[in-house]
Design brief:
Elements: H1 10-17, E1 22-26, E2 31-35, E3 44-51, H2 60-69, E4 82-86, H3 95-106, E5 113-114, E6 117-118, H4 166-171, E7 183-187, H5 196-200, E8 206-208, E9 215-217, H6 227-231, E10 237-240, E11 245-248, H7 253-256, H8 271-274, E12 281-287, H9 301-308, E13 313-314, E14 325-328, H10 335-342, H11 346-354, H12 358-363, E15 376-380, E16 384-390, E17 393-398, E18 401-405, E19 411-416
Parallel strand pairs: 3-14
Antiparallel strand pairs: 1-2, 3-12, 4-7, 5-6, 8-9, 10-11, 13-14, 15-18, 16-17, 18-19
Length: 432
């Protein structure tokens, strides 16, 4: 027990010693896996889709969260929401490279996918010890203070070439991948189905809400051992030195549950979602069955994007936490890099997004049209307004209307696929 903090004692130490492994089903991996607790699932799950093809890197989401939740003393280096430039950026610095290195050490035969089933070890299965005296329930590490100080290091730094490459500029880049590239990765807590932070806490201070699957820290129980910080592979649990407890993204749960004064009693999107000017975000609640699988909810836009169109993929599914944050991968990035980040569904997801069918094109219009959570959509068919040939065959564009509904079945808004064009008159308010 030498690697435990000196103030871990009594029942907390026993909670670490007696922890055993259970078999739970992880549908993102396509198999059962080891986890320190027996399976338990919420009624609905907070989930979101981020479209990386649209992200501007403006950090509006970052500052919306910062100004709402982490502006206090001791929270200076807490960024529950952040946008990092890949492949070099990360907060804390090199978080993904470091956990992937630990994963490679635990998987000497490689982290292979076969027939959409992950054959390697997760962070839980790859932990150094699996005996009754195990001290580490998940592969992880504690970032240094220095690694928490640079949230925007390597912002807009590209990979694959020099910015001064005149030949590159003269010829331009071509899809499907670019020689020089970077992309923005917006991140919040994934509110995982099998949270590593929850698994690692000896105080059992971390819990997953039954009503919406949001993962929270009971700060009265927390003693600041930072086991959650060490175990979370996404490094979204953070330690506050002034209070000596850990804090994390709370998914703006007053908004999600409709208790925020601005919500009018209706489920509302989080602050980072509602502030997004690039319209990259869509947040929702998906129903969960007794076995942990998503219950079929065909007209729920999150269900459609993840389960039907399969255009949105989890971030590092091989970690094994079954994250509930999903990403539409960027089209121009080398595929091997994206497969490591999002798993084996990358090629299908990019093809589906590049050449969207009629329904997908309509559902994509739902992003950021309202700050209320969309529970269901309907599509009213419109006229065909354009067609062209594509590598996948004829592409046809229809000006359909997509209608969004709230949890009470009432219409929230409706919008068209083809955005209207407004021509301002010669004289208008800001004319000089």
């Amino acid at each position: 027990m030498s690697d435990l903090p000196s103030d871990v004692h009594g029942s907390d130490k026993m909670n670490i010693l007696k922890r055993t492994l259970n078999k739970v089903f992880n549908w993102q991996l396509g198999r059962e896996m080891d986890y320190p607790y027996a399976a338990a699932y919420p009624n609905k799950q907070f989930a979101f889709v981020f479209n990386t093809n649209r992200c501007l890197g403006c950090q509006t989401c970052t500052m919306a969260c910062k100004s709402t939740w982490t502006f206090g003393k001791g929270q200076e280096t807490m960024w529950w929401a952040n946008v990092e430039t890949k492949p070099y950026g990360g907060y804390p610095r090199n978080w993904d490279a470091k956990i992937l290195e630990l994963m490679e050490e635990a998987n000497p035969d490689g982290m292979e996918w076969r027939d959409n089933i992950y054959k390697g070890k997760t962070i839980f299965e790859g932990a150094e010890k699996h005996s009754a005296t195990s001290q580490q329930v998940a592969l992880g590490y504690l970032p240094t203070d220095e690694e928490w100080k640079t949230p925007n290091l390597y912002e807009d730094v590209p990979s694959g070439g020099s910015r001064n490459n005149s030949a590159l500029y003269s010829k331009g880049e071509q899809l499907p991948t670019h020689r020089t590239w970077f992309f923005y990765l917006a991140r919040i807590c994934n509110h995982c189905s099998y949270p590593a932070c929850l698994a690692a806490c000896p105080r059992k201070a971390i819990y997953k809400r039954k009503e919406d699957g949001i993962v929270l820290i009971d700060q009265e129980r927390c003693r600041g051992y930072r086991k959650c910080v060490e175990a979370c592979p996404y490094k979204k649990s953070m330690y506050r030195g002034t209070t000596r407890v850990s804090e994390k993204c709370i998914a703006c749960y007053p908004r999600v549950e409709g208790s925020d004064p601005q919500s009018g009693g209706k489920p509302m999107e989080t602050r980072c979602m509602a502030a997004c000017i690039g319209q990259i975000r869509l947040q929702g609640l998906v129903p969960i069955g007794a076995n942990g699988e998503w219950t079929v909810d065909r007209q729920n836009p999150i269900y459609y994007l993840v389960k039907v169109a399969k255009v949105a993929l989890p971030l590092y599914p091989q970690f094994g936490t079954q994250p509930n944050g999903y990403y539409i991968p960027p089209r121009w990035v080398p595929r091997d890099y994206l497969r490591q980040m999002y798993g084996p569904g990358v090629d299908h997801a990019i093809d589906a997004y590049t050449y969207p069918d009629r329904e997908l094109l309509a559902v994509l219009q739902l992003f950021r049209k309202s700050n209320m959570i969309v529970f269901r959509y309907e599509i009213e068919k419109g006229p065909k307004v354009w067609e062209t040939d594509s590598p996948k065959g004829k592409f046809e564009l229809y000006d359909d209307t997509v209608i969004a509904f709230g949890n009470d079945g009432r219409e929230l808004f409706r919008t068209k696929v083809e955005e209207p064009v407004y021509v301002r008159p010669p004289q208008h308010l800001n004319t000089i």
